[in-house]
Amino acid sequence: MCMSIKNTTQDVKDTLKLQPKISVQGKIVCYKNSKQTLLDCLESADIEVHYHCRDGFCGACRVKLVEGEINYPMGEPLAFVGEQEILPCCCIPITDITLLIDE
Ligand code: FES
To answer: Which one-letter DSSP state was computed for residue 58?
Structure first.
């Protein structure tokens, strides 16, 4: 199992080329639009994620990152995130990722 969070400009540029795949709830979603957050991408694929602020403050969108790497393009969010948790409202995938969303 591999999980990490990176924050380099090169990581973000690499994301533009790779179009990472998101495995979640038995679906595979392709992250095609690098201007979208991960939350926007999931919503466009009809995958429901709870949210409130959509800006990294409240933590309502917290999901578990089972595998893969993400980036917070606007910097680290203020909301608390536990081990292996990410905030899809303000991150983007850098590699193929697997998510676990509590329902
Ligand atoms: S919706 Fe508030 S932190 Fe993501």
So the answer is: S
